[in-house]
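Escalated from tier 1: coenzyme A holo job.
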Amino acid sequence: MNKPILRKAIIHDIEGIYNLLLEFGKAGKLLPRSLSELYSHLRDFFVIATSKGKTVGCGALSIIWKDLAEIRSVAIHPDYQKQGWGKRIVEACLSESLTLGIYRVFVLTYEKEFFKKLGFEVTDRSHLPEKIWVDCFRCPKYPDNCDEIPMIIEL
Ligand SMILES: CC(C)(COP(=O)(O)OP(=O)(O)OC[C@H]1O[C@@H](n2cnc3c(N)ncnc32)[C@H](O)[C@@H]1OP(=O)(O)O)[C@@H](O)C(=O)NCCC(=O)NCCS
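Tier 2 regenerated the structure:
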């Protein structure tokens, strides 16, 4: 198995990211994203990629408001899980948020224990009104069927 590296996404990673998110989306673990959405958010993404260019992990930092960012689309291919790659993706997103001067970062997730280990705490959705204005209104699961757990970290 090629030793992968963590880096910012490039245009050639998008189809790999799309397929990763699609697989986990089918399993109900996260929301899949369309190719057009991924192209327009390319600069949000970090990837774990092999030397042959295969995308085996991804995650994105999305700016929501002047003091709030969101970690989205964290996914590690099953063959590469439990090797620290998920943690490295989240840490890269948090580091980028600090660089941008945004000190509150949240995630909506089913993986509570993973994010807890990385310093996130469960919060109430009412503490994230900007997210609801920007995104949730457009989601088919809003407001009654959203069962993702909101978690936040203050940097
Ligand atoms: C959740 C996910 C990203 C974790 O990635 P990973 O690369 O396996 O995680 P890491 O190896 O970096 O784990 C970091 C730490 O979290 C722990 N951890 C990982 N997954 C965990 C889980 N499901 N429950 C509890 N702890 C978990 C690891 O044991 C490790 O702990 P340690 O630092 O004490 O050794 C991966 O399982 C995944 O892609 N899941 C499917 C998609 C998904 O649910 N994404 C979250 C969307 S927000």
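The beta strands are 5-8, 45-49, 55-65, 68-76, 104-109, 121-122, 149-154.
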